[in-house]
Each structure stands twice: as structure tokens, then as C-alpha cells.
Amino acid sequence: MNIHEYQAKALLRSYGAPVSKGHVVTKAEEAKAIAADIDGPIWVVKAQIHAGGRGKGHFIEEEAGEKGGVRLTKSVGEAAEEAKKMLGRTLVTHQTGPAGKQVGRVYIEEGAGIDRELYLALLVDRQTSRVAFVCSTEGGMDIEEVAAKTPDRILSFSVDPVTGYQGYHGRRIAFALGLTGNQIKQCVRLMGQLYKLFTEKDCELLEINPLIVTDQGDLRCLDAKMSFDSNALYRQEDILALRDETEEDPKELQASKYDLNYIALDGEIGCMVNGAGLAMATMDIIKLYGAEPANFLDVGGGATKEKVTEAFKIITSDPNVKGILVNIFGGIMRCDVIAEGVVAAVKEVGLKVPLVVRLEGTNVEKGKAIINGSGLDVIAADDLSDAAQKIVKAVKG
Ligand code: GDP
Ligand code: MN
């Protein structure tokens, strides 16, 4: 789960990390009063969306001369005006895709004077199964580009969970970032605060880009991106309360309400599968035969007819779906339950695209009988390979 920059900064502040003073604006009429509570001489106005690259992004409805989703303004009035203009508009960045994201919240922050822009992140390193620090002197820009072109400018190391964060970790980062004097002390303290936050709140990623050295010579977190392990949210009530459902894919949101493991993708073939491994294999084989999956969906082991119906509805609500492949290997999941769910869903929402069904395993004959007796226009398949070829053929013509 992702949160907004202003929420991440409030969390950082609560752990003692240095951030600028700022307030969030959600209603245009409140912009002026909110901006007036912040001191200048620079007021930074920042669109809050769950995507990076806002500074270099553009609004779809942008007027000539306007610039991006991060703006430096010189008065309370100007800040309020910029905030009002951003609200309700659609911001496109290299991370949002061409459709962009609508801005419902704007953050107004006291501007910082910048001496240097650095990069810092904490993440879960899957290879070592540990929390890792990543830092670079090349802050403010795309870290992916730095990694590709000048990988020697990135330092990364992981922390032993038994000993946890130690001062030498912070000093190692400070020296790699070229910090001096009091900045080294600030860095050691800040890295400890970030590590504590990361582990206590079950973070997946905590990225500060840029971490700056101010013109006063102090460290400050100028941007913040945080995401959390969704499987840990049951024990992170305060984090769960920060969830902004308007930022999520409506299909994924619906799926999460029914406890379905669903991830929207860009392809044309909708998949309904039981078991994560079979779902992955199904996606692979669709690609092998020349098409792309529109989603990953694992309906799980003990899915009910209602859950299957909901899953089918979510798949058909995606306008990119040009065909559907139901691939069930009935073990705990029974084929007749899947068949009932599919038939019920089609009766409710109709079927406008080809549907290939491959059933195998527990109650397979019962399942097939339900599908065959339903009068639905279903293409039956015998095995995974046969099913994939049939749906790709049906879609590609
Ligand atoms: P992003 O584009 O979504 O990553 O948004 P950031 O918060 O990283 O802001 C983009 C850029 O705007 C930063 O790299 C800075 O160069 C600039 N910026 C943001 N806040 C301030 C500020 O308080 N003062 C100054 N001078 N520049 C800022
Ligand atoms: Mn940034």
C-alpha cells in the first residue's frame, strides 16, 4: 500500500526526521488560509498523487507557461492560486502512464534553500532477506537512470537484523555522500530514525529523493515516498487509516474487498485461475502463444460461488479484455463451484467476448455438465496448452 508525500512526511516528523513545515489542501476555498500559516520567502506547491516524477510532469489541462506538479511560488497569494489550479486537474508523469492521475490533494510547504540534492532509500533486499540502504550523490533525478549509466555512484548495503542499525552504517552513508562536520552526526541520527520507522511500520520502500543539504548546511528530507507490506496492515491500523482508495485501480480495490488476489495488467486476455503458481503458468503460456494477459487472478482454494461471480464481473468490467480464459485445476477448489460462479456471472453481466474453459480435477464431470447445460457459448479445452491456444486464436482471429 502506498501513501501520499504529505502523510509520509508526517510519519518522518513523528520519528524526529527533519522535514519542512507544510499543510495539505483539499478544498480550493481553504488554500489561502492554509498557505498563510506557512512562512516564506518561498512557498512550494506540490500535487499529491501516488506517483513520482511530478516536477517534470504536466497537467492535461495545463495552460501555456505553467510548469509541472511541483511549483515554487513567492507569496501566500500565488501559492494559493497555484494550489487551486492544481486541484481537480489530471497530472501526467512518466510513472502515471498517459492517462495520468487526478489531483485531489495539494501540499503547501515552506521552501528550502538547496545546496546539494542526494538520493536515499531503504528497501527489502530479497536476495539477502534484509533491509538495505541505497544512497547516491546523484539525487533529485531518476535513480534508474543513475543505476544504468553511472552505477559506481550508488552505494548499497544491507543491515544484519540481529544487530540492527549501528552508527557505522550511518557513517558509511555520510562518507559516500561526501558529508562533512556536523552533517555526519545528522546523517547517523537520521538513518537510525529511518531504519526504526521502516522496521516498526512494516515498510516495503522508504525513498527520500532528494535528501538535501540546505544552504544552511543541514540535512532535510525534501521528498518522501513510502509503501507498506499489505500483508502486515492488520497490525498497522494507523497506516491503514492513511489509505487513499481514489489512488487505487478500481478493479483491484473491488477484488480486495472480496479477498481475491487480483492484479490488473495491460494485455487482452482475462484470466480466472486457482492457485498462484497455476496463474503464473497460465500467464506464461498465453504469452508463449503470442498474446498478453489482462490480469493476474488467483481465486484461491476455498472460493465460493459468490466470490467466483465477483471475480468474473471484475474481469469483464475491463474494456481491454477481448477474451477470457478460465483455467481451474480442482483440488480444494471444486470444478462445479467454479462452473456455477461463471454461469451466474454471465447471466448477470452478459458475455461479449469469447470464453474458453478448462476444468480438471475434483468434480470435473459435474462442472462440465453445468457449463454444457447452461446454454453459454463456451469453448471447451482439455489441457493448459490447448486452452491457451484456443483463447489466443479466438482473440487474434
Ligand atoms: P518529484 O518530481 O515528484 O520527485 O517531486 P520532488 O518533491 O522530488 O520535487 C522535485 C524537485 O523540485 C526537487 O528535486 C527540487 O529540485 C525541487 N524542489 C522541491 N522542493 C523544493 C524546495 O523546498 N526548494 C527548492 N529550491 N526546490 C525544491
Ligand atoms: Mn522526488
Describe this structure in words.
The radius of gyration is 25 Å and the shape is elongated. With 397 residues, the protein is an alpha+beta fold. β17 (323-330), α11 (335-349) and β18 (355-361) form a beta-alpha-beta unit. Strands 8, 9, 10, 11, 12 and 13 form a 6-stranded antiparallel beta sheet that branches. A 4-stranded antiparallel beta sheet has the order 1-7-2-4. The protein has a 4-stranded parallel beta sheet with strand order 15-17-18-19, sandwiched between helices. It has helices spanning 5-14, 31-36, 76-86, 143-149, 167-176, 182-200, 237-240, 250-257, 276-288, 305-316, 335-349, 364-373, 384-396; strands at residues 22-25, 43-47, 58-59, 70-73, 90-92, 101-102, 106-110, 114-125, 130-136, 154-159, 203-214, 219-221, 225-228, 261-264, 269-273, 295-298, 323-330, 355-361, 378-380. It folds into 3 domains: 21-110, Dna Ligase, domain 1 (2-Layer Sandwich), CATH 3.30.1490; 114-240, ATP-grasp fold, B domain (D-amino Acid Aminotransferase, Chain A, domain 1), CATH 3.30.470; 250-396, Rossmann fold. The structure holds guanosine-5'-diphosphate and manganese (II) ion. Guanosine-5'-diphosphate binds at residues 44, 52-55, 70, 72, 111-112, 114, 117, 140, 209-210, 222-223.
